[in-house]
Amino acid sequence: MAFLAETGTGHLVAMDGAPEAGGRNLAPRPMELLLAGAGGCTAFDTVLILKRGRQDIRDCTVRVEADRAETDPKVFTRIRFFYTVTGKNLKPESVERAIHLSAEKYCSASIMLGKTAEISHEWEIVEAAG
């Protein structure tokens, strides 16, 4: 139950299943990769938008939590994005705007997942040292 996918850009991604499903638990599940992709997509957008807005962003992490339907197909029904944005003198309104633009306009992955799931976004700003 382990699989190796080659992306359109030639990168390899390993996937595996849970032991009870015949997997060896050596790699992420396909549904985990969907969430990771959405988290990466929105983090990328957020950083790019803040940089273009001349904000001194140093780091951005996005933690993603999700609930799935009880029955097949076990689609995501609720997804929560938690952003930690680190920088120097970041403007809260700029961070909020960047996350909103990602959620509503740019992040194809989360916008697609929003067709079946209720999506929420929370964020915090951490002042960078030095």
TrEMBL record:
InterPro entries cross-referenced by the UniProt entry: KH_dom-like_a/b, OsmC/Ohr_fam, OsmC/Ohrsf
Highest taxon, organism lineage: Bacteria
Signal peptide per UniProt: none
Pfam families according to UniProt: OsmC (PF02566)
Entry-linked NCBIfam families: PRK10738.1
PANTHER family found in the cross-reference section: PROTEIN YHFA
Descriptive protein name: OsmC-like protein
